[in-house]
Amino acid sequence: MPGEESVKRTEAYAREHLANERTHLAYVRTAIALLGFGITLNRVSLYFLEAGPPTAPGGPRSLLREVVGLGAGMVVLGMGLIAWAAVRYLRVARAIDRGEYRPDRTAILIFTAALFLAGAASIAWLFAS
């Protein structure tokens, strides 16, 4: 039947857009987690810096100063992820509408490499502290 193929196309089209929305929401959830954890790290480390007794240079208080920056960095990373998620969502939605969506493997590889390097830097920071 001629109408049956149109229904299948409409269902596939809707599934593709719904999958794009789910992916966008996953990015947003991750960004919210980064923002929340970054703010928590920042505020808690500032609290301990202000509330604790002074110690020798290079002691635990200097580690807390570094954590303040780490928390701020996580907030910036979360904000960047939100912006990137919005751009990606709109780009994929347009590609789906035109019927020419292709996965962006370059962005996936760059994002994976960046996370790997951030993890390696974290390990180096942990062992150096």
Automatic annotation (TrEMBL):
User: How is it placed in the membrane, per its record?
Assistant: Multi-pass membrane protein
Any idea where this protein resides?
A: Cell membrane
Q: One matching Pfam family, short form?
A: DUF202
* Keywords carried by this UniProt record: Cell membrane, Membrane, Transmembrane, Transmembrane helix
Cellular component per GO, a single term:
plasma membrane
Q: Which domain of life is it from?
A: Bacteria
Coiled coil residues, start to end: none
What are the residue boundaries of the DUF202 domain, all occurrences included? 15-95
User: Per the UniProt record, which residue ranges are transmembrane?
Assistant: 25-48, 68-87, 108-128
Keyword tRNA processing on this protein?
no
Keyword Glycoprotein appears in the UniProt entry: no
The family database entries (InterPro entries) matched by this protein are listed as: DUF202 (IPR003807), IM_YidH-like (IPR052053)
Instruction: Supply the PANTHER family for this chain.
Output: DUF202 DOMAIN-CONTAINING PROTEIN, FGR18P
Task: Report the protein name in the record.
Answer: DUF202 domain-containing protein
Query: What organism, scientifically named, is this protein from?
Result: Sorangium cellulosum (strain So ce56) (Polyangium cellulosum (strain So ce56))
